[in-house]
Amino acid sequence: MSDEEFDDDYSANEREKEGEEGEEEKEPTEEEEEESLSPHLLTEEIMKEGLSLLCKTGNGLAHAYVKLEAKEKDLTDISLLQNYIHLRYVDLSENQLRDLSPLGSLIHLLWLKVDGNRLISTRLPELPYLQIASFAHNRIKDTEGITHPRLGSLNLKGNEIQVISGLDPGKLTNLHTVELRGNKLETTTGLHLPKLKNLYLAQNFITHLEGLEELVQLTTLHLRDNRLETLDGFSKSMKCLQYLNLRWVLP
To answer: What compartments host this protein (predicted)?
Structure first.
């Protein structure tokens, strides 16, 4: 090969490399990520490993395990849970779940934790005895579909919620604590919950306080790390308020 041919070949290779380096890597879409996931079903073996807390059921003559811990199993499908109707405490954190509909069969469920999954919604069939629910660090977009009448504590920390909606005070008569830190909220409107006592809204993008006059039993309000343009929005009806955190709320 002559020097001239070598130079031409070298230049072509360099241009090709520069072109490759100049191309930006595209982030995969949710659909592409979903397609790339291998299905991992909840199995009887996983159930055996995770079940505990033997309790009486029904008329007291039968017994069943009522607690399940199945964390960090890469689960994508929990259909098997429909057969375990006596479960009361379920922890499915750090999996790959997007569908929680099988939990609708767990009518005795008291406590649910599904942190760190791939959920985009909190929608579940109404669970009559559910008292504590944690959906932290998912991809949840809204607060629709939460209708559990005995729910007392709701954790939605670290999601992608922009607007609070669908929280029916007629249904959620026992809801006393709502955790919404680290979302994308821009306003406090939508919290029509007169029984609410603890509200955590830190690390959002809130610029205006709205609808707080209905929170007549609120004792704790965290608004740290927001973008409040004004402190208007507080109401004389909030007579129970004891703790207010407004650190770093400059716009």
So the answer is: Cytoplasm, Cytoskeleton, Flagellum axoneme
